[in-house]
Write a structure and sequence with these properties.
alpha/beta, Rossmann fold, Dihydrodipicolinate Reductase, domain 2, six-stranded parallel β-sheet, 10 helices, 15 strands, globular
Length: 355
């Protein structure tokens, strides 16, 4: 008999919690045993969408954990509070699933790693990992299709974090909503750099075998009236002399899940024997090789359950005592965070940071 995995969702700062609870709700071997947030109104949509009974709705974390007794806890707090939440929840010994990014700085990420106990999984979810195009790119890299990865170039973002909610529902962006949102609050870990750069640097570590750059240089831009950036460009220099560029943007002309903006959102991967262009949610990826320098379009893989989405994947790993791998592993995510930390320092000091 399959185990039914008990899953709780804690803190609704990040609207991705709606997507993750939906995956739990639709999984045959999982159930939502509790949700918790200080503000009951923020849980109302999930209560209605997933028919969550009142006895499974909480405003106190300890009561939620003690009453619901989950196997896995989804944490969707603001970036700057990830370490705080992990440290509070880790003593319960449950597996912890943190929605991206890892943390607001490397110190916070290391606090999270130090808090988890033996046998307890700390999982960092990066939604781009589940895009068929990027998963296909990793398969081809692993198969040696383009030789040794030398450069990874990344451009990604969206129209802005308030332009959509859970399930990508389109929302109106107003000055009032910006003023109230943690996404536009520096102390809460807001800004496009912290929101999106970890995607690029973490998946780059996945693609390039965990290489760490020697130097990081970053510049940020956006509305001067805001206290956070809306645009960042980061250049990394590696020990072999290669350069990789990572660009984040709030304010793309369109959202990549509706219509690809220009520049296109996604990755360009340069190897010793070829190149790959993998763009968000496109049905094919473009590949050049020595044998076909003119390039060819390869259809993206049809990702099958449980390897198509984070909650099914994590349940599969836990059920079968398999390690969490790739970008969701704390090891790979820490490499990404190391670069993000250097980038934030570079932007603040207007200098190149040596790692």
């Amino acid at each position: 008999m399959s185990k039914t995995w008990r899953i709780a969702g804690i803190n609704f700062d990040h609207f991705h919690i709606g997507d993750l609870l939906r995956q739990t709700f639709e999984h045959s071997d999982a159930e939502i045993v509790g949700i918790c947030d200080d503000d009951p109104s923020r849980m109302q949509e999930a209560i209605e969408n997933f028919s969550i009974s009142p006895e499974r709705v909480f405003t106190d974390i300890d009561t939620c954990m003690q009453t619901s007794d989950p196997d896995l806890v989804i944490i969707c707090a603001s970036t700057a509070r990830h370490a705080e939440y992990v440290e509070k929840l880790a003593p319960y010994g449950k597996h912890l699933f943190v929605e991206k990014p890892f943390a607001d700085n490397l110190e916070g990420a290391d606090r999270m790693l130090a808090a988890v106990q033996e046998g307890q999984q700390l999982i960092i979810n990066w939604p781009l990992r589940w895009y068929p195009s990027h998963a296909t790119a990793f398969r081809l890299v692993s198969e040696g299709k383009i030789g040794t990865v030398r450069e990874v170039h990344f451009y990604d973002g969206n129209r802005g974090p308030l332009a959509h909610g859970a399930d990508k529902v389109v929302l109106d962006v107003t000055a009032e909503r910006k003023a109230e949102s943690w996404f536009y609050n520096k102390s809460e870990g807001g800004g496009s750099l912290l929101d999106y750069l970890g995607y690029g640097t973490t998946l780059a570590a996945w693609y390039n075998g965990g290489k760490i750059p020697e130097e990081v240089t970053t510049i940020t831009g956006g509305d001067p009236a805001l206290e956070v950036d809306e645009h960042s460009i980061t250049v990394c220099r590696y020990s072999d002399g290669t350069l990789s560029k990572f660009e984040t943007k709030w304010g793309t002309f369109t959202d990549p899940w509706t219509h690809q903006p220009q520049p296109k959102c996604g990755f360009n991967i340069v190897g010793s024997e070829g190149t790959i262009a993998s763009y968000d949610l496109e049905p094919g990826i473009r590949v050049q090789t020595r044998e076909k320098p003119e390039g060819e379009t390869i259809p993206t893989d049809d990702l099958q359950h449980p390897f198509h989405a984070p909650i099914p994947y994590v349940i599969h790993c836990l059920e079968n005592n398999l390690p969490i791998d790739g970008p969701l592993s704390a090891e790979t995510s820490r490499i990404g965070q190391l670069v993000v930390d250097a980038a934030a320092k570079s932007a603040e000091t207007k200098t190149t940071i040596t790692i």
